[in-house]
Amino acid sequence: MSRFEIRRYRWSDLESVWALHQICLAQVGLAPGDGVWYDDDFPRINEIYLADRGEFLVGERSGGRVVAMGGIRRIDDESAEMCRLRVHPEFQRRGYGARMVAALETRAIELGYLRLRGDTTLNQPAAIELYRKYGWREIRREDRSGCVVIYGEKELVEAMSTSP
């Protein structure tokens, strides 16, 4: 059985995370540059995420294949955005997304954030269910280029006080 390990992004992962992003968007009928998603952060992951009180993690299978990813991007001193949460379609429904969410939430707490925000679309029911499972609440919806975007958030202080 292949192992799945989560680690910090390295510059040599850029091609893999870009390909994973494109594959996962295509799976739900979206594409980079379609007006729904931005993608200018990929060449600047170190600057946008790692150097600005954020994080970017990749989930790697034995042999070095990147099959999952996710980032935390600073919004302000108390809030961060969880973004770029992706799991390759061949590896979905194995708990990798849940492990990425848990790792990113833990890292956000370590970085001192009080809340996480994020978004997904109605095209992504598995992502909606994953966020709900982890206690996120919907705060609003928006139509963007014919796609319904769902915005959510999670208070990390509550998460810390109710942790086992």
Written as H for each helix and E for each strand, in order along the chain, the element string is: EHHEEEHEHEEH
Q: Helicity range of the residues?
A: 25-40%
Mean pLDDT: 89
Distance between the termini: 29 Å
Query: How would a crystallographer describe the biggest sheet?
Result: 7 strands, mixed
SS strand fraction: 25-35%
Strand line-up of the largest beta sheet: 1-2-3-4-5-7-6
Instruction: Give the low-confidence spans.
Output: none
Helix-strand makeup class: alpha+beta
Instruction: Please count the helical segments.
Output: 5
DSSP summary, beta strand count:
7
The global form is: globular
Alpha-carbon Rg, integer: 15 Å
Short description:
The protein has 164 residues and is an alpha+beta fold.
Structure, described:
This protein is an alpha+beta fold and 164 residues long. It is built from five helices and seven strands, in the order βααβββαβαββα. It has a seven-stranded mixed sheet, sandwiched between helices. Helix 3 (96-110) links the parallel strand 4 (79-87) and strand 5. The model has no long low-confidence stretch (mean pLDDT 89).
Write the layout of secondary structure elements.
Layout: E1 4-8, H1 14-27, H2 45-50, E2 55-61, E3 66-74, E4 79-87, H3 96-110, E5 115-121, H4 125-133, E6 137-144, E7 147-155, H5 156-161
Parallel strand pairs: 4-5
Antiparallel strand pairs: 1-2, 2-3, 3-4, 5-7, 6-7
Looking at this protein, list some descriptive labels.
about 160 residues, alpha+beta, 7-stranded mixed beta sheet, about 30% helix, globular
